[in-house]
Design brief:
This protein is α/β, with parallel strands linked by helices. It is built from 20 helices and ten strands. Strand 9 and strand 10 form a beta hairpin. The site of adenosine-5'-triphosphate (ATP) has 12 residues, from helix 11. The site of adenosine-5'-triphosphate has 12 residues, from helix 11. It is an enzyme of class 3 (hydrolase).
Length: about 625
Amino acid sequence: MNSQGLDILKRKFRSANTIINHLIQTLSLVWAASGYWTLASMVMLLVQGILPAISLTFTRQVVDNLVVVAGNGLSVANVQKILIPVALMAGIMLLGEFFNSSGEWIRTAQSELVNDHITALIHNQSVAVDYGFYEYSEYNDKLNRAREGASGRSLALLESIGSLLKNSVTLLAMATILIPYGLWLPTILIISAFPAFYILMYLSKIQYQWSQRTTTDRRWLMYYDYLLTNSSTAAEVRLFDFANHFQSAYQILRRRLVKEQFHLLKLQTLGRFIAAIIALIITGGALAWMGRQVLLGILTLGDLALFFQVFNQGQGIVKELLSNIGKIYRNSLFIGNLFEFLQIQPTIVDPENPVAVPTKPQKEIRFRQVTFRYPGATEAVLENFNLTIPAGKIVAIVGDNGAGKSTLIKLLCRFYDPDSGRIELDGIDLRNFAVKEFRRLITVLFQSPIPYYTTAGENIALGDITALSNQVEIESAAKASGIHEKIMRLPLGYNTMLGKLFPDGTDLSGGQWQRLALARAFFRRAQIIILDEPTSAMDPWAEYDWLERFRTLAEGRTAVVITHRFTLAMQADIIHVMRAGRIVESGNHDELLALGGLYAQSWKAQMESSSSQKVKNGIA
Ligand SMILES: Nc1ncnc2c1ncn2[C@@H]1O[C@H](COP(=O)(O)OP(=O)(O)OP(=O)(O)O)[C@@H](O)[C@H]1O
């Protein structure tokens, strides 16, 4: 064999190996989800597999006895000879029907259990993967494929395996009936279905490749659909009147996908038709041979009836059996996407021997020569970056858009690790702490806080899920963030449902949602408080009021505030000015003004543009 042939063989072997692995993984997954139901359905399938063959053996008896009765006339004994096998056949049919309906019940129960199990696996993995997972298109493709692979495919796979088992049993029983007429008959029966099998496998592969290739396209469709149907985009869709633009983008993409799908469908139809013709020719030939045997008096009419039924049904079963194999192949390809997703390993993990996290920072948080580049990005956001945040102080970081402020927060929360350099808490590299334990030390108010559609109280309590029912603390966090009075005016106070997505929900304004998120951050009672643009949605009066409260609350804790508002930054103990991934100035408000650098220039510019001294613009 030449090297090309060897390569093909190796590839085929690897692909068969992957399919077998997927089958084993699927079986163990289904077993873990629905052990007893799986056992019950397997037993049932086995019995269902044997029943048709038993029923067929009575066919010959009935036909041969009919011939005898037709020749000898009616008598009680003769009628009995017909009635008994007929009654037995009826009994078997009844039993078959019983198993069919019970099978449906078992499959539904099993399907619910398996779907729930897979959903739980996907949920667990979605939370376990790195935060960075969600920032990359290829990962989102993986998640999407996993979902598509999961939806019904594992059970379809199991059903195909079950059906394969059942059909194999039936075929074995039927082949046993055919063997006495010649070994070549069951052989030809099986061979006749091979063209259909080959075509099915080939088309399954094409279908799978097409689906992989168009995953991103399908996500685009979901995105356009979201833009056109979501409450958060409804206002802009109307105002900018761009619905037609996205609708037509949706339709153009959809038309292309449908066209490609139709092309695949055409191939499938043609392939099936050719396979059916081949099978028909083989059946015709076998039947002609059998008819000749009867005419020659070698076989009886009963034999012919039995043969016809066995061959006819047998061919259907072989076809089904091979189609089961095809389906197993196709589903195992798709379900491979689920396993691929489940196997993604997070990179932000606990060290082997984690160091105990201090109860609060004693000395400082320090970025030492940190260089970081987002995966796939050409430029580093931070390069040899140094920053010290003294324990117990409020540190403000100001800087123009894209300077890298949010990135350093992501690094501090260990959503990413630096490519080089280290981030330390009291001299210990953050990578030496257990991730969850370290994060417990931190509370963050992100730039765009999430409105959770639950009660006002729970919205705050989500900051520390272990203290969900601590009403006193919930209220004190709400007071600290300045949202308590608003909540008290809601119809059911802290028990009022927020958001308009579900019945009886009340919506809040942008600034009120932000205060609620702030209350959530406070409720966590963490020693390191990080706030990314905490007052961006607040009016200047509210901001002033909030600052007073925050000073009291942050007392003794370490706070990092990222802001474009100088009225907020000026209150900090230390202000760091950041530009293009570097700290370019540091000091308190007065020191920085005296320095006459970037901070002082931006401050002056803002003061000039705002007689009310309520700063609206960033440092840029
Ligand atoms: N997930 C990402 N992948 C690649 N590049 C990113 C990613 N997130 C941010 N960046 C890039 O990193 C740089 C710093 O972004 P960052 O969000 O940290 O800036 P910022 O200072 O917080 O800006 P702003 O004040 O506008 O919020 C930007 O140039 C941005 O394009």
